[in-house]
């Protein structure tokens, strides 16, 4: 696949972002210690390869053309303590099961992109937090500082960058071993834990769809001679928010026999709402790498900003290069998304559209607990499908914050989880995630929506 033209990397280096305003960067008390860590990271082996990156870029180009669908999902912010075999296995399981359900609805291949093996940093709305009259730096993710409310824990520590790199390497190594080792063998319907489905009026639809998946995989095994768990063509890609620019640029390098620079910490880096300014350091950093890149877009975008994103990040208008991840909220998407689509078309953009139905639907309970309502998430996704179709295009994927664990962080869903349930198993340090059952239910609903649209 051809790569981005030379116009996009003129006068760019992995550190040229330092000449631009860099938001959401931690303030380290020892600058020399930080530089020593970054120098060490520059010598570390890459976490991903350029071959994998270009493979994903090709798949995203297919999704842009409507020939694929993208499932991007995983933790809001990974924690070092969760780098365990059980946690990784459960996350991989729910992503794989969701993708198989989506294949049935989309009637096309599904690209799986995990928010894992590097999603350790998070932007914050305030740089400091005050409790009982004590003010400390905000918790910014395990790769920067620690969640405990003490001066020592909240002081940014450059050694955590090394720990984050090591945890990402361990997680990615285990994920690759699972995928290659037969973990994808899900041709038995009992692998889909559908106990929750009996609480839903769509229970029969869910079970019928699961049986369809089982029958299709059985056909592969018995007729085509391909056992579902032995195919090495099931792949997973990694993604994370490219927030800590020192960390990202330390693993950005040239590779043999390929022009340009690659971020080798992840296949698919993106920038969020707080760092997506067209003239800022984060967009400048993304400008020069050959990875496919994403930009989160909210309700406050301007047409001029959209034009700048496209001109800076995808000047040659190459499908697969730029993904716009829109996050408006169920009550605002109808007013905001059509204008965004029109702005992209006016610039000749050939972007992949992904719906993040999580971040625009975050609310606080009366007691101050962050949560999200399953019905709002479902509504935003379904509206996204309808709006893109009405405007002559197609939604190319979904972006979901989820976990394979039985947490109680989001309300709603077939089991009817309410605010009183949140205290039972609320683990997230930052944003609430769908649990295993809610994630799988959402996949069935999305598949149902796609199947009905195609019919």
Provide tags for this entry.
12 helices, 8-stranded parallel β-barrel, two-stranded antiparallel sheet, 14% strand, globular
Structure description:
- The protein has 455 residues and is an alpha/beta fold.
- It is 37% helix and 14% strand.
- The chain has helices spanning 31-43, 50-64, 85-106, 151-154, 159-180, 203-222, 245-250, 281-287, 303-313, 333-346, 374-390, 436-454, and strands spanning 69-74, 110-115, 128-131, 134-137, 237-241, 252-255, 258-263, 268-271, 293-297, 322-326, 352-356, 362-364, 370-372, 397-401.
- The strands form 4 sheets. It has an 8-stranded parallel barrel with strand order 1-2-5-8-9-10-11-14, surrounded by 5 helices. Strands 3-4 form a two-stranded antiparallel sheet.
- Helix 10 links the parallel strand 10 and strand 11.
- Helix 1 (31-43) runs parallel beside helix 5 (159-180).
- Residues 1-9 have low confidence and may be disordered.
Helix content: 25-40%
Tell me the total number of β-strands: 14
Number of helices: 12
- Shape descriptor reads globular
State the low-pLDDT regions, or none: 1-9
**Neighbour order of strands in the largest sheet:** 1-2-5-8-9-10-11-14
Main structural class: alpha/beta
Main beta sheet strand tally, sense and closure? 8 strands, parallel, barrel
Radius of gyration, whole Å: 21 Å
In terms of DSSP E residues, the strand content is 5-15%
Q: What distance lies between the first and last C-alpha atoms, to the nearest angstrom?
A: 33 Å
Overall mean pLDDT stands at: 90
Helix/strand order: HHEHEEEHHHEHEEEHEHEHEEEHEH
């Amino acid at each position: 696949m051809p790569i981005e033209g030379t116009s996009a990397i003129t006068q760019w280096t992995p550190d040229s972002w330092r000449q631009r305003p860099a938001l959401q960067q931690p303030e380290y008390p020892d600058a020399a210690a930080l530089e020593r860590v970054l120098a060490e990271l520059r010598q570390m082996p890459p976490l991903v390869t350029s071959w994998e990156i270009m493979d994903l870029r090709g798949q995203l180009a297919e999704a842009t053309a409507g020939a694929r669908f993208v499932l991007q999902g995983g933790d809001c912010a990974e924690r070092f303590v969760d780098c365990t075999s059980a946690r990784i296995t459960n996350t991989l399981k729910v992503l794989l099961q969701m993708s198989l359900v989506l294949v049935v609805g989309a009637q096309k291949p599904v690209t799986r992109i995990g928010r894992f093996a590097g999603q350790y940093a998070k932007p914050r709305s305030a740089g400091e937090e005050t409790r009982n009259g004590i003010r400390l730096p905000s918790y910014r993710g395990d790769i920067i500082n620690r969640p405990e409310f003490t001066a020592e824990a909240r002081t940014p520590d450059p050694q955590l960058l090394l720990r984050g790199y090591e945890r990402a390497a361990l997680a990615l190594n285990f994920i690759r071993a699972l995928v290659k080792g037969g973990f994808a063998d899900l041709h038995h319907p009992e692998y889909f834990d559908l106990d929750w489905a009996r609480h839903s009026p769509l229970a029969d639809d869910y079970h019928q769809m699961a049986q369809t998946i089982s029958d299709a995989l059985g056909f592969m095994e018995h007729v085509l001679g391909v056992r579902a768990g032995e195919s090495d063509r099931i792949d997973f890609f990694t993604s994370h928010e490219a927030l800590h620019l020192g960390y990202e640029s330390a693993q950005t390098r040239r590779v043999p026999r390929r022009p340009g620079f690659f971020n080798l910490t992840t296949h698919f880096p993106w920038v969020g709402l707080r760092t997506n300014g067209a003239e800022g350091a984060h967009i400048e950093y993304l400008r020069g790498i050959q990875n496919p890149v994403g930009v989160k877009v909210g309700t406050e975008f301007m047409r001029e900003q959209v034009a700048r994103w496209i001109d800076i990040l995808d000047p040659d208008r190459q499908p697969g290069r730029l993904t716009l991840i829109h996050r408006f909220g169920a009550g605002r998407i109808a007013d905001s998304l059509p204008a965004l689509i029109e702005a992209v078309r006016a610039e000749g953009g050939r972007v992949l559209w992904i719906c993040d139905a999580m971040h625009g639907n975050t609310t606080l309970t009366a007691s101050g607990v962050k949560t999200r309502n399953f019905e709002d998430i479902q509504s935003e996704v379904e509206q996204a499908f309808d709006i893109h179709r009405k405007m002559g295009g197609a939604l190319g994927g979904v972006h979901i914050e989820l976990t394979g664990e039985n947490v109680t962080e989001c309300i709603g869903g077939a089991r009817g989880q309410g605010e009183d349930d949140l205290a039972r198993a609320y683990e997230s340090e930052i944003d609430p995630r769908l649990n295993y059952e809610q994630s799988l239910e959402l996949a069935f609903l999305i598949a149902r929506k796609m199947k009905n649209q195609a019919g």
